[in-house]
Amino acid sequence: MGMFGGSTEIEMLCWSTALGILQLVLAAGMAALDQGLPYNFSPRDAPAPPLGKVGGRLARAFRNFLETFPLFAAAVFAVTVLNKEDVASGLGAQIYFWARLVYVPLYAAGIPLARTLVWAISLVGLIMVLTAAA
């Protein structure tokens, strides 16, 4: 049992949730720096000032996380509810989390090929979790 007291899959789900919160804070913080506090404290009725390169990358990386995280969470819940956790699903959950963690700085730094490869690796991890539910 890990820090969160559950299976490896649940542990990685909790850490992935924490990663999502971190990405949200990073993207919002960079948006505040790039767009200015007056805009960010406003009702945002006017078009947003542009984000800088890193701010835009962090925002896109966070949106990308939001595309895969619900699928990962559903796969973890499926294997947990069906009591089908195994070595492959635990490894897959770890692969998903660590790949998503590595993805953020790669995207922020603008490293395209490595970023895409790490994204693909995270999907392999997600698929490993999902197939355990079958």
Write the layout of secondary structure elements.
Blueprint: H1 8-35, H2 37-41, H3 53-81, H4 87-109, H5 112-132
Helix pairs in contact: 1-3, 1-4, 3-4, 3-5, 4-5
From the N-terminal CA to the C-terminal CA, the straight-line distance is 24 Å
Over all CA atoms, what is the radius of gyration? 17 Å
Largest sheet: none
**Shape, principal axes of CA atoms:** elongated
Low-confidence stretches: none
Q: Order of SSEs, N→C?
A: HHHHH
Number of helices: 5
Tell how many strands the DSSP assignment holds.
0
Taken as a percent bin, the fraction of beta residues is under 5%
What structural class do you assign from the helix and strand content?
mainly alpha
Provide the residue-averaged pLDDT: 94
Residue share in helices? over 70%
Brief sketch in words of this structure:
The chain is an all-alpha fold and 134 residues long. Helix content is 79%, strand content 0%.
Task: Please describe the structure with a list of short key phrases separated by commas or semicolons.
single chain, 134 residues, mainly alpha, 5 helices, 79% helix, elongated
Describe this structure in words.
This protein is mainly α and 134 residues long. The chain has helices spanning 8-35, 37-41, 53-81, 87-109, 112-132. Helix 3 runs antiparallel to helix 4. The longest helix has 29 residues, at 53-81. The model has no long low-confidence stretch (mean pLDDT 94).
